[in-house]
Amino acid sequence: MDAMERLTALCANRGFVYPSSEIYGGINGFWDYGPLGVEMRNNVKAAWWQRMVRERDDVVGLDTSIIANPETWVASGHVDSFHDPMVDCRLCKKRFRADQIDTADRCTAAKDHQHDLTEPRQFNLMMRTSIGATEDSSSLAYLRGETCQSIFLDFRRVMQSARKRPPFGIAQIGKAFRNEINPRNFIFRSREFEQMELEFFCLESEAMDWYEHFREVRFQWQVDMGLDREKLRWHEHGPEERAHYARVAHDIEFEFPFGWNEFEGIHYRGDHDLSAHTAHSGKDMAYTDPDTKERFVPHVVETSVGVDRTMLALLCNALVEDEIAGEKRTVMRLAPAIAPIKSAVLPLSKKLAEPAGRIARDLSRRFNVDLDTAGSIGRRYRRQDEIGTPYCITYDFESEEDQKVTVRDRDTTAQERISTDQLAGYLSERLLGY
Ligand code: ATP
Questions:
Q1: Rounded CA separation 373/310 (Å)
Q2: Helices (H), 71-169
Q3: Is 114 a member of any domain?
């Protein structure tokens, strides 16, 4: 089994993530997050929101609808320009993104295994739907291809209601949809995914300073999430790579088991979006500085990262096999802030389930805690190691006498005896923050 197969199997078996509508054979490019996956996702999103919104006084949050007036996507350029080049193999009938054909992929219908490819055609990635009872051109709408467009549409209202003025930013976390030609690499490229985006509005003359600032902020966040520095690198887009809206763009890439790939983009969008929506809607999006009376269309620096790609990077980074006292184990070294379960309470015997349960209930007011009563203690440790639980708490017969429990550290497997009334404080110190 290679690294991705091992990870995919673990994710499905342990309830992190698995194919959507599996009993019908799944549907390509769509995934379901199970009980552990949803906890981890929520942790990733909370950590992003904390750093990008709550800890800053120049950013506010937003949550907009997935479907907007379709004119939005005409103005933004997505209807005309949000394309990927598509090619078909005339022999095996498979379809590929022309710029991403995998050399390992071989034609199953040709003797020499070489595909016989058509010329590339442009394929629009916007996912269409129709609204209301009739299905004609007037009912056409799109599921958003990126979360940021509604931030531009709501720019003036947010600025006024939140009493902000440039430089300031608007952040949003939400679903986005792209009709990807070839979804692949597990949750790396799917057709429904979630983005965490910040659009930061500023003066043109200050845009590149903000751009550099947010490059630093975002790289540091990835490191703080626990990603190994040596598996992260910057990639600057050349002119031919840049999206239709971008003037300058850098990706943060991670070394996935299938190679270096983008999972976050920092883009300088200029005044592309606000100007386009002004021109298309007839509503002026310019801003007048009350002090200088200067009127200008703010320029925008964007940071855009996928929740799912971040999850995949974190999972790939964390999943390791090591050896403890001559015994091999699989361990998910997730940062405590990201781990789906923070602590598991393990009664040594079923007879101790009740007092152990009381400890678990008490801790669950602060942390996501699991009470695990089934199997030998060794097996329970392994199970918790595999899903990344940072601390296991064992309640044994002595605990009844001395009101102490054994706390075991996932990474070192070192054990400490802690009195139960100090447990919440002990864990808080080690689990909170990131
Ligand atoms: P790619 O070149 O891989 O298609 P992109 O450059 O089009 O990606 P952006 O438009 O910059 O991506 O989107 C910002 C972020 O959204 C990406 O860095 C990624 O984390 C996430 N993302 C984009 N497309 C997908 C997808 N199909 N599945 C999962 N996440 C995605």
A1: 32
A2: 71-75, 78-81, 149-153, 155-161
A3: no
Query: Cβ(180) to ligand 1 under 6 A?
Result: yes
Q: What is the DSSP letter of 298?
A: P
Q: Are residues 376 and 274 in the same domain?
A: no
**How do residues 125-152 score in pLDDT, each as one tens digit?**
999 999 988 877 779 999 999 999 999 9
Whole-structure pTM value: 0.93
According to the model, what pLDDT value does residue 241 have? Answer: 84
What is the total count of domains within the chain? 2
189 ligand 1 Cβ < 6 A: yes
Q: In degrees rounded to 5, what are phi and psi of residue 150?
A: -70, -25
CA of 67 from ligand 1 middle (Å) equals: 19
Q: Which of 262, 268, 305, 307 to mutate to test the pocket of ligand 1 (most atoms within 8 A of CB)?
A: 262
What is the token pair recorded at 156?
């003036």
Domain end: 281, 315, 349, which one? 315
Same domain flag for 345 and 310: no
Task: Check pLDDT > 60 for residue 162.
Answer: yes
Q: Tell me the CA end-to-end span of the chain in Å, nearest whole number.
A: 33
Nearest atom in ligand 1 to the alpha carbon of residue 194 is: 30
Decide: residue 37, CB within 10 A, 0-12 exposed, 13-18 middle, 19+ buried: buried
Query: Distance between CA atoms of 189 and 291, rounded to whole angstroms?
Result: 46
Query: Domain span at residue 355?
Result: 341-431
Q: Answer whether 19's CB lies under 8 Å from 11's CB.
A: no
Residues in the chain: 434
Domain boundary at 298, 315, 332, which? Answer: 315
- Same domain for 366 and 219, yes or no, is no
Partnered with residue 264 across adjacent β-strands are 252, 305
pLDDT exceeds 60 at position 434? no
In a domain, 102, yes or no: no
Residues 353 and 304 in one domain: no
Instruction: Provide the CATH number for the domain around residue 418.
Output: 3.40.50.800
State how far the Cα of 346 lies from the Cα of 379, in Å rounded to an integer: 11
Query: Using alpha carbons only, what angle is made at residue 399 by residues 395 and 404, rounded to the nearest 5 degrees?
Result: 95
Same domain, 142 and 259: yes
